[in-house]
Amino acid sequence: MAIQIIINQAGPLPITAKFTAPSDGSTNLEVKGSVFTTKQNVMLGIHVELDGHSKGKARIFSNGALTHRPVIPAYIPVQLKQGEHTLTLSAAPDSITDHNDFFNVVLHY
Prior knowledge:
Layout: E1 3-10, E2 15-21, E3 25-32, E4 34-35, E5 42-50, E6 53-62, E7 69-70, E8 74-80, E9 83-91, E10 102-108
């Protein structure tokens, strides 16, 4: 299986990247990064949008506040057509990001 790196950069979110799908067919997006919050006992995460449509989230539950936490990597199946696409990562509710957070999205095809 081949990979294509789509995003590999520091925050803050949102981050938008354009990429070219190498072929038609079933693929998977692997999404990783970190987030923090000012609250206790909340679900945090990174929202993933592809071509204007919500595709999923990479999440983690946080017991404490003000600590950057890595989300559990999410593998999101997507059906792509060969050509240009737009991917956007944004902070899920209660999630905050800044320049100390780093984000990585890889297309597995």
